Every structure is written in C-alpha cells, then in structure tokens.
C-alpha cells in the first residue's frame, strides 16, 4: 500500500515540496526570515522527500533517507540553525507527506484507502528514525569546539539576536555550543563607512586582550558583539580601531544575550551621535546628543526656546557666539583653554559668554542653566540647516 501511494506521489514531488517549504516559512520565525539560513531549503527538502519516497518504493533505498537526515543535521548545526526550528520543519514536512500520500490514494484508488490506516505506523516509524539521526548529527556539529580565531559558524543566530529575536532556542544553542554566558556583560559596536576595512566585514571570532569579539557583517557595515567579562567598556576603544573614513558607535553594557537587540539599537544611537570620521563614540559620552537625535521634532523647539535670541543674530555673530559656547563646554568650562582653542584671549571668551547669558537669560554659574544651554546647543546642531550649523560640526 505504501509502495502504491508513493508511486502516485513521486511525479508530483517538486510541486509538493514548494508547498511544504511555503508552509515552513509561514510558521517558523527562523525559516521565515530570508536573511537567515538555510538558503538551500527547497533543494534540501526536495532531496529529503525524494529519498524518503524512494525508500517506500524500493526497500534497498531505505537507508538513503537516513543518510540525508544525517547530512542535514550536520550542515544545519554548522550553519547555526536552531534545533527547534529544524524539528518544526521536519514535523511539517512529515505531516504534509503523509497527507499527500493519503490524498493520492483517495483520488486514484478510493476502494483501498482504509488500508492506509495500517500503513501510518510504518511511515511515522521511518520518520522518527530520520529525526533521531538528524538530531544526533546536529548535536555533534554544535559540540565541535570553535577555534580561537576564524569563521564564526553561529553568525546567523547572533544576527537574529541583534535584530531582537531573543528566541530561547537561539540562547540555548549559543550557550551550549559557544560557551557564551546567557547573562554575561555584553556590548555591541557598529562600524560604518567606506573606511571599514575588508577584514572587518567578514564574519569571525577572536579574543583581544581578554575580550571575546564576534564580527557580524551587516548590509551597511559591521556589528561586533563583545563579551566584556570584567573588562571596562572603555577597553573597546583600543580593541576596535576605526578607519579614517569610518565611524563607530558603542552601546551601553547590557546583561545577557536576550538584550543584544537593545544593545544594537543603543549602538545605532551612539553612531548617529558621531561628529567626525575616525571617531568611535560611546553612548554614555554623547547622551545629550542622543536625546535630541531621538526626537528631532523637538530639537528645533528646544533650540529656539533656549537659544532663540542668539539664533536671530546675523550669521557671523551667531556663529561666533555658538562656537565660543561649544568650545567652553568642550574645555570643561575653562575660558583659558577655550581661548587657546579659538585663538583669542580668555577675556574675549568671557565677553562672548556674558553676551550669551544676557541674550538667553541664563547664567553659566547655574548648573541647570548650563544643562539647558548644552542640550539646546546639541539640538541646534541636529536641527539647523547646514549653512547655520556651528563650524566644525558634522
């Protein structure tokens, strides 16, 4: 009976496989993401169905299905496909195959359909055997030690976590196969720009000064997952150099693999706060700029409310006062150092600052007023048109 139903299904296997693959992609978060492996899902599924059906037709070909299941388990393990996703795909495929076998008999030999009830046990026994083989191959692939440097075979799972897919299966697989602590101290670095070196756009794993770095290529640059251990976040500045024509953003420290999606978002904000090429910006160093970047609709209002009288001056006076305020803030409130930076006397800096105080009705001796002015200055940098931005800002 099984041989008869398999012979009926065999010519339709390509179309049948397309339907099963569509169902797998529709219900599986992993397989439904086109950026995650496997890219050969349809071809692999067709080979699996062909081998299974061939084993039902010819007893001497039964072993082919198990051989393919082993190859799939090994390959998907090396690719970083989570085992639960793989099991779901096999479950959907086996259920679809059984339904298709029964449907062919119902259509072509309705008088024999009751005999299929006795064949169900054999189909599922063979399917369970293939699944057991696949699981063992997947387990062994994950158990292979990862070299100290080289290609990161678990890149797909890291990429998924960076996108915020904190699937427990991803966390369990990474924890088991890489030895990554589920609740370790992590940070994410984003590098973008033409100056990002080719080596940095390749997936890989390495240890630099006690910090584990996982390089994850992106469409527009590279993301680096850093397991800091007991190292400070500032250590990344020396471990991840930024090219002359590139910019980088460093997230805050997050606790655990499930927070990598948030860390990537924070690194994105830090990257947006970069002011010049060659800079690696830590989120904590640019929080005021990040705040105004996240609400550009309010940045203009803030700048107008605090700096409005200054912004209404003619362009030369406006730029002179804003540049002086920026220099004074960057020099930690030192008029002498600000004067050196601006190539003018400290008294000139003082006079300009007093003018800013008079125009804005804020006092630089009052911490709250300094916060207002610093935030408004960042808001003006973000919201102003290019010809009205402070000189040296980018």
Helix percent band:
55-70%
Order of helices and strands: HHHHHHHHEEEEHEEHEHHHHHH
Terminal Cα separation, in Å? Answer: 74 Å
Percent of residues in β-strands: 5-15%
Shape: elongated
Low-pLDDT runs: none
| Beta strand count | 7
> Average pLDDT across residues?
84
Q: Would you tell me the structural class of the helices and strands?
A: alpha+beta
Question: What would you report as the Rg, rounded to the nearest angstrom?
Answer: 31 Å
* Main pleated-sheet profile: 7 strands, mixed
Number of helices, counting only DSSP H or I runs of 4 residues or more: 16
How would you describe what is shown here?
- The chain is α+β, with helices and mostly antiparallel strands and 394 residues long.
- It contains 16 helices and seven strands.
- The protein has helices at residues 2-9, 13-27, 41-57, 62-79, 83-108, 116-143, 155-162, 168-178, 236-239, 260-272, 287-294, 296-311, 315-330, 335-342, 346-360, 367-383; strands spanning 185-192, 204-208, 211-218, 221-227, 247-250, 254-255, 280-282.
- Strands 1, 2, 3, 4, 5, 6 and 7 form a seven-stranded mixed beta sheet that branches.
- α1 runs antiparallel to α3 (41-57), α5 packs antiparallel against α6 and α11 packs across α16 (367-383).
- The radius of gyration is 31 Å and the shape is elongated.
- The mean pLDDT is 84.
